Structure formats: structure tokens, C-alpha cells
Amino acid sequence: MPEDFNVTAYEVEGKVDYNRLEERFGIKPITEEMEERIRKLAGESHYLIRRKIYFAQRELNWLLDEYEKGNKFYVYTGIAPSGSMTVAHLLQFIMAQWLQEKFDADVYIQIPDEEKFLTKNDPKLTLEYVNGLAHEDALDIVALGFKPKKTKIYFDTEHANQIYKHAVRVAKRITFSTLKDAFGFSNETNIGAIFYTSTQAVGTFIKSAEEGRKIPCLVPLGVDQDVHFRVARDVVEKLGYYKPAIIHSKFIPSLKGGPKMSSSDPNGAIYLSDKPEDVVKKVNRAITGQQSTAELQKKYGGNPEKCSVCQYYKYLFETDDKKLEKIFEAERDGSMLAGEHKAALAGKINEFLEKHRKEKARLKNKIDDFILQPQA
Ligand code: TRP
């Protein structure tokens, strides 16, 4: 029987059923109790957890137990550049920044500037080009409010002498047949793409290796990335480190109604580099949950779950639950028509992007304070 949806590290197809995905991946929901524990320790809850956008986890209770015993964790996440960052990429960095602030956690960020070069068949993605994107991404990330010194961004090709030795230790314990099953690789897959997963695993123990002691690690990620850690977790433990704890987020839907906003679909995605007029244009073309005419919409109302405009508010642009509920209600009861709805969202996004551009400009000359200290 053909799968009705498919989530791999390199492709997302169909309508994703997150409950069934938990089963397939062997991951467990973030329970109310866990949510409450986080809220107590952090002093506040986070909208991405409250709204179950971060919906699943591995080893979260263990991580919080350790934290309560005084064994602090660090955070690890990353992004593989292939174009300008989209707003969908922000989810793991918003979470990492919040964890840094609330749990006083160091944050390690891998920018694998070889991943898309290796895994995509696109002549535009030369190593030099991707490396340039990587530096732009670094600035986009720190502009979200990360702390200098407590944030350590590293680029695979530039920090190779700090990560390669760890990557090979991981690689030795993972077989090609495991990766074939996990990633759908075949004999035609290039050997760089096959090796890559071992470099992604390094972040889960890089701080422990640097400091020569076992330090718990929490990885916030988009659920499609779980597979890298599924194959590496046991290996990491065998190397003498803790298995990482993980929290998994859902995908922000495409503006055009697909299952996942993809950076390779310019009309369905909002890039951090988009100009105000691009944002207005894209949002105007977005799929809403509304009826086909204003009259029908006023009469029957729409469905916020199917409305990409409502979903954008939910995932990123309205963090206040009461205000979000008002927007959803106005969609349901038909009182807010598509045009008005879209204009308001485009305004919010542009407000965010404007602030973001200013932060980037302010930090441009300070970026070195956020980069992992290179070793000679
Ligand atoms: N492979 C990820 C991507 O395609 C990038 C990445 C590197 C990452 N290290 C990570 C994602 C750790 C989550 C956690 O964007």
C-alpha cells in the first residue's frame, strides 16, 4: 500500500499525520506534565510548546531531572543553507534563544555548509556559494537575540579541525545498510551525502568533548531531522556521552497550502530577505480557509485550521493566545474577510522583517562574538 504521507530528512510529501509519525519514528508526545515542569523551571511557558507546535520529544523528563539536580544542559541545533532563510527556519532558533535565556544554556549551532552541496543536485549550489549563504544565515540567527559568548556557531568547512575527528568516530559505528533504510540512500548516492549524518551528530556531544565531561544536550529540531539522531543516538552513548534529548516541531504549512513551507518554493515561502512588496504579494496569493465568495464567507464562515494566514499567526506572528483566538474566531464566524485578514498579516510580517533587518545591520560587525572560537 502506498504511504499517504512521507517525511524524510530530504523530502516531505502528503498530509502529515503527526500522531502516526510519532509511531513511525518512535518518539513520544510532550505531555501536559512535561509542559508544566518546563513552565515552572523557566518561570513562564512558551507559545510554541503551549500550542503543541513542539509536539514530541525524546528523553525530556531525564533532561529536566538532571537540570533539577543542578546538571545544566546545553542546546544544539542547526540549519543547512541552500538559499535565503525562510520564516519557517525560525522555529528551532526561537526555541533555542528562549532556552538560552530561561535555562542559561549555551547554544551550539551547526551550519553545515557542505550538506546541500552534497545532497542536492543543483549546479548553483557550489561550495563557495553555500559558504556565503552560511555566513548570511549566521547573521540572521544571531539577530533573533542570542547572547554573545554563550552562542557558538560553527561552519563545517571552516571548523573542520574541531569536528572531523569526532565525526569519524561516529561514522565508524554506522553502516551503509542502516543509512539506506533510514534515508532511502541507494548505491548511486554519493559518499559525501552518506557521511554527512555523522557530522550532524557531533553537535550532540561537542561541548562534552571540549570540556572532557558528560554534559546533557537538548536538540530542538523540525521533526524531519529526527532521523539523523535516530541512527546516531546509540553511537553517541557508546562513545561515552549522554544520548541527546530532543524536542520536535511540526512544519509550518506553505502559503499555497502544501504540507511544509519549503525554501525551494519561492511563492509558498516568506524569506527573511523578502522586500515588503514581495511579502504583500505572496500573502495576497495565500490559501485561506474561506468560502469562495465574500457573501458565502459571511454566511458560513471559514476554517482556521485550513487557512494558511491563520496558521502563520499561530506559528509565528501572534504569540498572545487571546489575540490568536480572536483571529481564529473572526475566521470561523465569517466576520473577517480574506482581504482584510491578509493585509493585517502582511503588515505583521513586514514589521517583524523590518526589525530583523535593523538587528542584522547592528550586529554585522559583532558576528565574531557568536562564532565558535577556531582552533589553530
Ligand atoms: N540538516 C539540517 C537542515 O537540513 C541542519 C542541521 C544541522 C540541524 N545540525 C542540526 C538541524 C541539528 C537540527 C539539529 O537544515
Reported CATH architecture of the largest domain: 3-Layer(aba) Sandwich
- What is Rg? 21 Å
CATH homologous superfamily identity of the largest domain: HUPs
- CATH class annotation of the largest domain: Alpha Beta
Instruction: Give the distance, in angstroms, between the N- and C-terminal Cα atoms.
Output: 54 Å
Strand content: 5-15%
Biggest pleated-sheet summary: 7 strands, mixed
Total discrete domains? 2
- Order of adjacent strands in the largest pleated sheet: 3-4-9-8-5-6-7
Alpha plus pi helix count: 17
Number of strands: 9
CATH domain topology of the largest domain: Rossmann fold
H-E order: EEHEHHEHEHEHHEHHHHEHEHHHHH
What oligomeric arrangement do these chains adopt?
single chain
Q: What structural class do you assign from the helix and strand content?
A: alpha/beta
What does this protein look like?
By secondary structure, the chain is an alpha/beta fold. It has two domains: 245 residues, HUPs (Rossmann fold, 3-Layer(aba) Sandwich), CATH 3.40.50.620; 87 residues, Tyrosyl-Transfer RNA Synthetase. Helices cover 48% and strands 11% of the residues. It has 17 helices and nine strands. A seven-stranded mixed beta sheet has the order 3-4-9-8-5-6-7, with helices on both faces. Strand 8, helix 12 and strand 9 form a beta-alpha-beta unit. Helix 2 runs parallel beside helix 4, helix 8 packs across helix 10 and helix 15 runs parallel beside helix 17. It is globular. The structure holds tryptophan. Tryptophan binds next to strand 5 and strand 8.
